Amino acid sequence: MERKCRSLWSPRLSKQLKYTGKADPDRWCEIHGIAHRLGIKTNATMLYGHVETPAERVDHMLRLRAQQDATGGFLTFVPLAYQTATTKLVPRQTPPADSLRTIAASRLLLDNFPHVEAYWVTLGEETASIALHFGADDVNGTLEDERIQHLSGAQTPAGLAREQLFRMIRDAGKIPVERDALYNVVQVYN
After folding, report:
1. What span, in angstroms and rounded, lies between the C-alpha atoms of 107 and 149?
2. How far apart are CA 109 and CA 48, in angstroms?
3. Which of 28, 32, 57, 154 has the fewest Cβ atoms nearer than 10 Å?
4. What span, in angstroms and rounded, lies between the C-alpha atoms of 112 and 5?
């Protein structure tokens, strides 16, 4: 059965939630497809750990996979753990084991994506470090004052120094590599 990049969210969720001011899934895929055909690389994300089912996560990733097969323009997939904050959609933060399973599944399902990111801001430093053994190959960078996830309730620091990132990567037995936004290697830190 051919999957198209359509309805990234389930009909069940679409009926429950109104996405005012946001592109619907079909439009989102269309926009990324246009960018890719113009030679503009983009990233894809998935918010998880709130109201979706495991099957809906898999469906989301398979639809991203289909879009990548069609246009080949995604550089990285970034699974974003939902921050509970004051919304109370869920009683507690999704556990680290769920984040690691999500990253592992994304690496297997999105083998046509060059990179899978373990975003330390939503995962925490320890889980992001471990995620480098679950299919992630990127932990993002030295943010100075991250605000979006922190406004949503992230309990991690608003920024990390280069040395902290090096420690996180080396704790996983990996070699830190500085990259630019297009994943070109800037410097390898042996």
Report:
1. 23
2. 16
3. 28
4. 15
State pLDDT tens for residues 48-87: 998 889 999 998 999 999 999 999 999 999 999 888 876 6
User: Please, are residues 162 and 142 in contact by the beta-carbon 8 Å criterion?
Assistant: yes
Single pTM value for the model: 0.81
Q: What CATH class does 11-188 carry? A: alpha beta
Token duo for residue 40: 């503009």
| Helix H or strand E encompassing 148 | helix 148-151
One-letter amino acid at 102 equals: T
The H-or-E segment that residue 78 falls in is: strand 74-81
Q: Are 10 and 59 in contact (CB under 8 A)?
A: yes
Q: Which carries the bigger pLDDT value, residue 76 or residue 27? A: 76
Q: Which of 86, 76, 83 is nearest to 99 (CA)?
A: 83
Give the number of residues written for the chain. 190
- For 96, 119, 179, the CA distances from 184, given in Å and listed in that order, are 30, 19, 5
Residues whose CB falls within 8 Å of the CB of residue 164, separated by 6 or more in sequence, listed in order: 125
- Residue that has been written with the tokens 């992630």 in this structure: 136
> How far is residue 57's CA from residue 167's CA, in Å, rounded to a whole number?
31
Strand, coil or helix: 62: helix
